[in-house]
Inverse folding.
């Protein structure tokens, strides 16, 4: 098996992660990775929340910090510089300006908000009790498609995050996923296998195996991410992730540089 690149990890700047970038890089080497990418939560453009993301003033410091580890590990580990940015309807142009102000290697686009509700935040979990789960799912997939169509992102993050706490739609979501996969393909975005779901109440990677099959069939390229918020989680469960990728039909995954396809690597 070729080593898998871990394209999704955070830094303490987001206010809910631990460990210095150097420790994430050391862990990556220890578990046999050859390439990683830091994709910390981009500043929220709708409001500041120091427990969720860095703010605009901290962004230059983030870039300097990751450039410094990239330098330090040169020759031992390839390090990409990225962000995980929220898709917030109405903030597309502000988001574009932020993402164009630096030569990122890729941008992960994530839907964590439905209107102002951070549906994956444990502190806002009560809202689920008042919500129609099917409706939340339908809205979520609509937002995923809008994210891809915004052309702001290269990779779509954890594409069934709505299941995080175990809430399951009773409506059949096949049509939603097929439509979403078609849009991802048209818009040239990749999908990630995100192993963090295994560490959440749902105890399942994102996305579900049946969904990944649909993305594969539609020709949507693949990346891998641990979504580590702690150095010990870098590359975690990647053996399972590779099995999932292969059983969904994937035979290769995507390497990005300066927001373009650098190469594909065989699984
Ligand atoms: Zn986070
Ligand atoms: Fe996320
Ligand atoms: Fe993340
Ligand atoms: Zn994430």
């Amino acid at each position: 098996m070729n080593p898998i690149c871990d394209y999704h990890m955070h830094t303490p700047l987001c206010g809910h992660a631990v460990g210095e970038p150097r420790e994430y890089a050391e862990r990556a080497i220890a578990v046999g990775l050859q390439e990683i990418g830091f994709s910390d939560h981009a500043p929220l453009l709708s409001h500041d929340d120091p427990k969720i993301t860095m703010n605009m003033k901290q962004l230059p410091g983030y870039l300097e910090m990751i450039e410094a580890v990239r330098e330090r590990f040169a020759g031992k580990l390839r390090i990409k510089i990225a962000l995980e940015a929220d898709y917030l309807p109405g903030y597309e142009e502000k988001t574009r300006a932020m993402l164009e102000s630096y030569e990122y290697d890729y941008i992960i686009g994530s839907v964590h908000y439905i209107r102002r509700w951070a549906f994956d935040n444990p502190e806002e979990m009560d809202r689920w009790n008042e919500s129609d789960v099917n409706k939340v799912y339908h809205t979520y997939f609509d937002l995923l498609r809008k994210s891809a169509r915004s052309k702001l992102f290269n990779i779509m993050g954890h594409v069934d995050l709505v299941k995080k706490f175990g809430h399951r739609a009773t409506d059949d979501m096949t049509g939603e996923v097929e439509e979403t996969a078609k849009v991802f393909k048209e818009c040239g975005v990749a999908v990630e296998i995100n192993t963090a779901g295994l560490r959440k109440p749902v105890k399942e990677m994102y996305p579900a195996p049946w969904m990944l099959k649909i993305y594969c069939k539609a020709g949507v390229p693949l990346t891998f991410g641990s979504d580590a918020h702690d150095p010990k989680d870098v590359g975690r469960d990647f053996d399972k992730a590779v099995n999932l990728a292969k059983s969904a039909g994937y035979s290769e995954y995507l390497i990005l540089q300066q927001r373009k396809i650098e190469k594909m690597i065989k699984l």
